[in-house]
């Protein structure tokens, strides 16, 4: 990913290039505080309603909104409810339209390529409902995707007679070329679309979309990204990625209002996708969209402003470094299996593992008793850790200590 290379080359994280993240097993001991931005952690953590004694490691499910965002949504709600009709279709309608411009800037797209949605699933389903495919056309995805992605594919199977091929990626993958080769090998003459997570919800693997686009574009294969776990974790550039569509949510790593999201539809792809929802246009409010939740959508715009003020690349480097530290510590525990990739170009702020001799929900319950909140993954008996920038080294050390106690000796 270009954005990932840019922040490394630019030295946005002091000392990161000297730390051999691609080989954790041989990595020397180091002080994480030399690599993270304490001011970023402090600025973000004090804005959250998460109690001081709680270690929240489940941003991949839902992120805690900062107080400025909560207060913005509350203020807009009060403004709306004081004079609902005129406010909703007057000044507030203008504000939600401006959010599309903010989204476009955030992902390096154009405003007329952006649709405001309620979540990633809705964005992906708009594509599934409207994309014209024929019986026998093939869609390729992986066997470790989120249900919100899979439901649209199930719909296409049931209503259009398409074939869905779920491929297995190396677990964990060791380099981008390995991932690209597996996917390229699976492409056949009937393949019409690839639907893949930008950051995999199970393993945290960052899909090498730019390399894949070099394969799909000459073959006229649509390339669609589920970005639920990426927005807010890393810098986004949909143009460089080469995707035809990108759907994501505002309420995970972006830490925005719940039930917010956006969908990018590349200009060339828009003729292929014409759902009723956008029949009257892509504007935030239209005859075909109906009344919108203006408070939440304006809150989404404020969330994007908040991220840009903190520094998107700064957040990305912090989450990567925290995840690298977490994975390095987890590798020292012999009774778990690491599911996340170690290679920097494939790694993200997500670190997942599987306990070998105990059920994942039992471990999660013991951690929750210590106010450490993690995600239980039904697949692979997994547990997912989200290392956002409001997590500290102390938090991760407490998690590791509690995890060791929770695991059988």
Verbal overview:
The chain is of the alpha/beta class. It folds into 2 domains: 2-67 and 312-406, Aspartate Aminotransferase, domain 1 (Alpha-Beta Complex), CATH 3.90.1150; 68-308, 3-Layer(aba) Sandwich (Aspartate Aminotransferase, domain 2), CATH 3.40.640.10. 41% of the residues lie in helices and 14% in strands. Strands 2-8-7-6-5-3-4 form a 7-stranded mixed beta sheet, with helices on both faces. Strand 5, helix 9 and strand 6 (222-226) form a beta-alpha-beta unit. Helix 5 (91-107) runs parallel beside helix 12. Residues 1-31 have low confidence and may be disordered.
N-to-C SSE series?
Answer: HHEHHHEHEHEHEHEHEEHHHEEHEEEH
Query: Which CATH architecture of the largest domain is right?
Result: 3-Layer(aba) Sandwich
The number of distinct β-strands equals 13
Give the low-confidence spans: 1-31
Lateral arrangement of strands in the main beta sheet = 2-8-7-6-5-3-4
Tell me, what's the shape? globular
Q: What is the radius of gyration?
A: 21 Å
The biggest sheet amounts to: 7 strands, mixed
Protein structure class: alpha/beta
Integer tally of domains? 2
> What is the helix fraction of residues, given as a range?
40-55%
* Alpha-carbon distance between the two ends: 40 Å
Name the beta content range: 5-15%
The fourth-level CATH homologous superfamily of the largest domain is: Type I PLP-dependent aspartate aminotransferase-like (Major domain)
